[in-house]
Design goal:
Length: about 425
């Protein structure tokens, strides 16, 4: 079959395009992005063509489009004119989950890392294909296991058919499509209801505890969970902890991971692997050489400064990045750079962002990346809402990137949903 992807450079779309290509299909697409994206690399490796228009689209192709592509987009119009069979990105993933033993990783935060972590362990033990929202798609033709990141945006994860599901946490986000936290909890309740075998969920999370199902197995730090991490030691060179399952000692884990959130992600993976019969020593081995997901605390060292690229765009995610930086680099100055993503999220969480940025020694905030939204619909909402409430914060842009140069022996996380390459490149270019 031949698939045409509209918006093929999107991080989820790239991973799905790679999976379909590696399954033996012909894949091509178009994208309107005007700057380089890290997702281009896996497309180029497979020689998947990306065009600036949809002229190559023909009626016999299956048309796949991202949520960012609307009905007035040239590619959508052409696909309809040609009578192409059409799938939204999440609809096509839903079709794939029906054909495989799907392990669907959901939750407001941490699902990308957990998907990458579990996919890595399973691929190297019992076998698995996996799709990660960081542009990664891996195919194992000898396995029926399919690990897939499952997003709650516009209830998309309800299109999936999981054998197992994971719920890492439930927090209020996607304020443009959910009125309140109760709506999000209800979506995850349906997600659990759709699960065929086991729901592995973080029992430390009070919102997760509101999900009712006889399939749920809880993990966390609290003793009342089924899978528990105890005796934590968070060091600058990694983390160690003991795992107990159903009150019995399971194993000691000494891993190259940082932050309590990463231990929780590891516990979710340990739970799935335990039910799949994977040996504990193998779990430890492949957790320990897990290299991390793309754009999740991704580091680059320049002299005595550590630049960090991270996808964090919710206040709790920003807090996690700053805490991780403190653990790993306790003797460096912590300089936070936030790229607020969507006007509605900034409007809803600007007080939280301001409070959390106070954890850094210094904070900088760029203009808001509006994504699919328009500033005229949100009068008065700018990044100044955050800056004005945070005494250690000020505005920054590519043109004023030299503000960062006075910070030596520093760790500088660039945080935002939008790829911050433009800002990091400006920093490196200015150094020259």
């Amino acid at each position: 079959m031949t698939y045409f992807f509209a918006g093929i450079k999107g991080s989820g779309m790239t991973g799905l395009a790679c999976i379909l290509h590696d399954m033996g299909n012909i894949v091509l697409g178009c994208d309107d992005a005007k700057v380089y994206s890290f997702t281009e690399e896996p497309l180029n490796e497979r020689k998947i063509k990306c065009y600036k228009n949809a002229d190559m689209l023909t009626s016999d192709m299956i048309f796949v489009y991202t949520a960012a592509i609307h009905d007035d987009h040239y590619a959508i119009k052409r696909a309809k004119e040609l009578g192409c069979k059409m799938y939204g990105y999440y609809e096509l993933i839903g079709e794939l989950t029906k054909k495989y033993d799907a392990i669907c990783i959901g939750g407001t935060h941490g699902k990308t890392t957990t998907t990458a972590m579990l996919g890595h362990i399973m691929k190297n033990t019992i076998g698995a294909s996996y799709l990660i929202g960081d542009g990664t798609g891996v195919v194992d033709k000898n396995s029926n296991n399919f690990v897939v990141e499952s997003c709650e945006f516009e209830r998309h994860l309800l299109l999936y058919t999981p054998k197992y599901s994971v719920i890492t946490n439930i927090d209020y986000d996607h304020v443009d499509c959910y009125k309140n936290i109760d709506e999000i909890i209800e979506v995850f309740q349906q997600f659990a209801d759709h699960t065929k075998y086991k729901v592995v969920a973080c029992g430390d999370d009070l919102n997760v505890r509101k999900i009712k199902s006889d399939r749920i197995v809880y993990y966390g730090f609290d003793d009342f969970n089924d899978i528990v991490a105890k005796n934590l030691d968070l060091r600058s060179d990694g983390s160690s902890f003991d795992v107990y399952i159903n009150n019995s000692f399971y194993g000691h884990f000494n891993l190259n991971i940082y932050g309590r959130h990463m231990i929780l992600d590891a516990l979710a993976c340990i739970g799935i692997c335990y039910y799949e019969g994977i040996d504990c020593d193998d779990i430890i081995k492949y957790l320990n050489d897990f290299g991390g997901a793309k754009r999740r605390f991704q580091e680059e060292i320049i002299n005595d400064v550590v630049l960090v690229d991270d996808y964090a765009h919710h206040p709790n995610e920003v807090k996690t990045v700053l805490e991780t930086a403190r653990q790993k680099y306790p003797n460096k100055t912590l300089v936070a750079v936030l790229i607020p993503y969507t006007i509605s999220r900034t409007q809803s969480f600007y007080k939280d962002f301001a409070e959390i940025l106070k954890l850094a020694d210094k904070a900088f905030v760029t203009d808001i990346e509006p994504a699919r939204e328009k500033f005229e619909d949100y009068p008065g909402v700018t990044s100044d809402l955050i800056i004005n409430l945070c005494p250690n914060a000020e505005h920054i842009s590519a043109e004023t990137i030299d503000k960062l140069y006075k910070y030596d022996n520093a760790v500088i996380p660039f945080m935002g949903c939008k790829d911050p390459t433009w800002l990091i490149d400006a920093y490196k270019e200015g150094l020259k």
